[in-house]
Amino acid sequence: MTEIEWWEYDDAAELAAAVAGDIQFVIESALDARGSAVIALAGGRTPFPAYEKLAQAKLDWKKVTIVPSDERIVPLGDPKSNVTGLAKIFLPKGARVMPIVPAATDDYKAAGRSADALMQDLHWPLDLCLLGVGGDGHTASIFPGPDFDEALNGPRERRALGVMPDPLPPEAPFPRVTLSRAAIAASKALMIMITGQDKRDVLEKAIDQGVSSAYPIGRILADVELPVDIHWAP
Ligand SMILES: O=C1O[C@H](COP(=O)(O)O)[C@@H](O)[C@H](O)[C@H]1O
């Protein structure tokens, strides 16, 4: 089990400012060290106030590549598309925001292979992976279902894959493409951002359960070696 540090904030605004500051620091460090930065950012809803704040930072955005940690297989522009939300915020800054599912398709496995091929062209490992956690304990789009084992235990070089959640989450009932556990665990920095006591309870339980956890986030955290920062507000 890795070293996990909880960071607690009074409210969502404080949380957003802190997470934005930490992401900015990672990007600046990568730009100083290498002249470019590649980061994966969670989708859903929780992290978007932090992204709005981050976008105000004075950075050489043209040298920053952003990929979603996962994507719902929906057309680009759909309100449920994670990359569409990221693109609205970071494209105007000049960042490269990479769709990993360029077109909606019925073949989620093929979508996963295509996302994996796109990821192979990126500088690797990721400078940062920021994860969210669903109320059901999923993270990125690693869900229980027929692809769970492949997402957790597939070959190390597999960076992304297609996933059919079972059951489909009611708030976004779509097949998905997600970073694999190996890709997440290989990141140079790993952060989690959540809000609310319910998600905190799930995350604490998942961490306690460790490698035998039924929650995807528990299985991932049981396997990472780098320290993990969890940012939380009620
Ligand atoms: O479906 C998803 O859910 C998780 C959690 O989203 P949140 O809005 O409850 O924070 C998210 O991290 C993931 O990227 C997304 O596709």
TrEMBL record:
Keywords: Hydrolase. It comes from the Bacteria. GO terms for molecular function: 6-phosphogluconolactonase activity. GO terms for biological process: carbohydrate metabolic process; pentose-phosphate shunt. Transmembrane segments: none annotated. Residues 11-221 form the Glucosamine/galactosamine-6-phosphate isomerase domain. The keyword Lipid metabolism does not apply. It catalyses: 6-phospho-D-glucono-1,5-lactone + H2O = 6-phospho-D-gluconate + H(+). InterPro entries: 6-phosphogluconolactonase_DevB (IPR005900), 6PGL (IPR039104), Glc/Gal-6P_isomerase (IPR006148), NagB/RpiA_transferase-like (IPR037171). It holds the Pfam family Glucosamine_iso. Pathway: Carbohydrate degradation; pentose phosphate pathway; D-ribulose 5-phosphate from D-glucose 6-phosphate (oxidative stage): step 2/3. Belongs to the glucosamine/galactosamine-6-phosphate isomerase family. 6-phosphogluconolactonase subfamily. This is 6-phosphogluconolactonase. It comes from Sphingomonas jinjuensis.
